[in-house]
Design goal:
By secondary structure, this protein is of the alpha/beta class. The protein contains six helices and five strands. It has a five-stranded mixed sheet, sandwiched between helices. It is globular, with a radius of gyration of 14 Å.
Length: 142
């Protein structure tokens, strides 16, 4: 697969930007759902999320749009938790580089796995997210 995706769990991977041309490869790689974390209009000529969702659904991939721009909100975290729970797996989440998708996964999983565990998982995948520790501790209730 030409998409450089990194697994954070058995059923959840992250990657940088995905194009329409990548969708067939994503499906062939076994992914059943997409989470689009890159906000519309972040870069010129970027495909809008609604177009990506329609194309994905056309080849039987579920897709949801949870844009991450600016500060992380509890809505983003809860929407990510819901998507992970509701979408058929495995799931591929993407943004510009994969970092925002990895951060949202950490925040969505911290209640179950703990701060150190999610940070280690992200680091093992190449995402150093130690700066999120205070937010992770807050979401976890520590």
């Amino acid at each position: 697969m030409s998409i450089d995706h990194k697994a954070l769990s058995e059923g959840f991977s992250v990657s940088g930007q995905v194009s329409l041309a990548d969708l067939e490869e994503i499906k062939k790689a076994g992914f059943r759902s997409l989470i689009i974390n890159r906000p519309d209009n972040e870069v010129p000529a970027q495909l809008h999320a609604e177009s990506m969702k329609l194309a994905a659904q056309g080849i039987d991939l579920q897709a949801v749009y949870i844009p991450m721009a600016g500060q992380i909100s509890m809505d983003m975290i809860e929407d990510t938790c819901s998507a992970i729970g509701d979408l058929p797996g495995p799931i591929l989440a993407y943004c510009g580089s994969g970092t925002r998708s990895a951060a949202l996964w950490c925040l969505a999983q911290v209640r179950e796995q703990g701060v150190d565990a999610v940070l280690q998982t992200a680091a093992d995948a190449g995402y150093e997210l130690g700066h999120l520790r205070p937010a992770l501790e807050q979401v976890r209730g520590e």
